[in-house]
Amino acid sequence: MLATTAGAATAAPAPRSCSFVCVPDPVVLDGLRLAGNKIGLMAGNPTLRTSLSNLLRQADDALTKGPWTVVDKERVPPSGDKHDYLSLAPYYWPSQPKTPENPQGCPYVDRDGQVNPEMKNVPDKAERLVAFNSIYQLSLAWYYTGKAEYAQRAALDLRTWFLDAATKMNPNLNFAQGIPCKTDGRGIGIIEFSYTFTQVLDAARILEAGAPGWTKADGKAFRGWSADFLAWLRTSKNGTDEAKATNNHGTFYDLLAAATASYVGRRDLAREIVRDSGKARIDHQIAADGGQPEESTRTRTYHYHTFNLVALTRLAQLGKHLGVDLWSYRNPQGGSIFAAVDHLLPAATGAAPWPLPDIHFIQYAALDSVHAAADAGDRKARAAVGRIPVPPGGDLFPVRPAAEQLDDVSTT
């Protein structure tokens, strides 16, 4: 795919039939791996069949829900436009009693790891999570089964959230994670899109492989939306603030920017971001023993160690498509993605307790990143995968082989 000028999108690839086995061209996922899975399923591979059964259970549920839109909310963003995404900072709470003179209980104070239930009064964040996951699951369900209803529903959900004039989201996150009485929105709020939007990019690429209900015009329009979003991400104050973050926020910013750039055809920019993330992220974030100092001061240290690894492993998978080997990168202290994964293995397998405080330890949270590292050649990870508990919905990694955040704590 040819690189384009800033803000421009490339032409849609010609649709291809997936009636038997075709190789899609995702951004993070490996298209050859997906095609190989399809052949494995035809041959009766039991691991793949179990994983697909779990995925289809979720996709079938997604067929009956949605579509979702940012214009559903009652609260109007500061812009006055309901098409702007809106969310509240999850860990900020009122510090004073709510009175007629101070109806919001300001000022708000940070209680790290404790989600303020008031944020649920603004539904964009929760609906975004369900919508984007559904789009991803439905597109994969179509790819593996060929059933048109999965693709058609994924296309409807995509058009409703991103493209239809009456319901679409504006391509910005100006008002994400605002704090009442303090700020309308923050760069920190970008993380709400930072890996789930990359799932949507993969879904769109899968649908471009000839899915019913997703047209060339749809693909062109979504690339245009994504190009506009990338421009906002790289030039807005919120975007440039988030790019400077030194913890998981910075890693996820790199993932979001690089994946979006790759999707819209700016592969040189995507390659540059992934290549530079070695020094910009791994050098600072991973100690020689694989610990992550930036994530070690939180109240949910295990969660944030695994969370940052979702971004790092997805960046490494994206880099593979771009000719950048982030898996092999070692910082001057000897830290690497492999070292960070291996650091989690005793706790992830139950062999030893997690050595840091965590107010809500969820053992299976590391599973996907361990899977990804095992696939990339980490022998310790490969030996450990079968000893890590699976999430309640089952182990989906075999059929959607890219790391996800398995313990979303932002809405609980």
TrEMBL record:
Q: Where is the Alginate lyase domain?
A: 71-354
Q: Gene Ontology terms, cellular component aspect?
A: periplasmic space
Q: Which GO terms describe its molecular function?
A: lyase activity
Q: What is this protein called?
A: Alginate lyase family protein
Q: Which InterPro entries match?
A: Alginate_lyase_dom, Chondroitin_lyas
Classification via Pfam families? Alginate_lyase
Provide the alphabetized UniProt keywords.
Answer: Lyase, Signal
